[in-house]
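**Tokenised fold:**
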Amino acid sequence: MNTFYGTGVALITPFKSDLTVDFEALTNIVNYNIDNGTDYLVISGTTGESVTITAEEKKAIINTIVEANNGRLPLVLGIGGNNTAAVIEEINTTDLSHIDAILSVSPYYSKPTQEGIYQHFKAISQASPKPIILYNVPGRTSSNMLPETTLRLANDFENIIAVKEAGNNVAQYLTLIKNKPEDFLIISGDDDLALGVVLAGGAGVISVIGQALPKQFTKMINLGLEGKASEAYAIHFDLMDITSLIFAENNPAGIKAVFETLGLAKSIVRLPLVEATEGLKSKIKEAVNKLD
């Protein structure tokens, strides 16, 4: 269960100028994270632009990351959606032999009731051979998975082991941490709140900025897990500007601009997203250089 303590990162999918996947850059980013202290890798989440990736590309992305990782870190794979049967079909037809858990987003667009969300995850839990991390991100799904629903799922299904909570809602985090079963993990999906969540009893973070600044970010989270608040907040304050800048226009345009500054990947995204504006890129460059 300790597998998902600490810092997980929601990996980007780097693209070449012709919009094909840049597998070499992806391999480099995986190695960069492993070398700099990241605890686990998340494949094909929102930050990986999962909605504009084809099924064939997803397979190739998984294979590239599995090969680059070479068993060094736990791997989490994003498989979610608002068609329950299709999610189960993808779980059943995906080679999960190198995958340690599935990250599954609460159904978007359809706006199910809390009972609908519960039944969706119940069906996925019963179909999945791997542990499941629930993913609540109301800003993208248009519906909030309430703490009662998350806790009901946590108590009812042994293979539902964690929630990535990304509602930017401190009260909701605290309700979950206060009432969760002992071995159920509350993982922050909000980079700006991650340290506070960890200090309150959360298990860690699935981060966007962490993949570009793994050394600093994992150190901050580890200090938080050790209860060393003032040392951890010193790093948090250093990272505040860059963390805020990467979400100023859209994710992952911001984090890709950071990777471009670091020389690890191009800042190209696929439509309907567009690249960070030149103004934002220059602010990001300045913030990154300040950290050096």
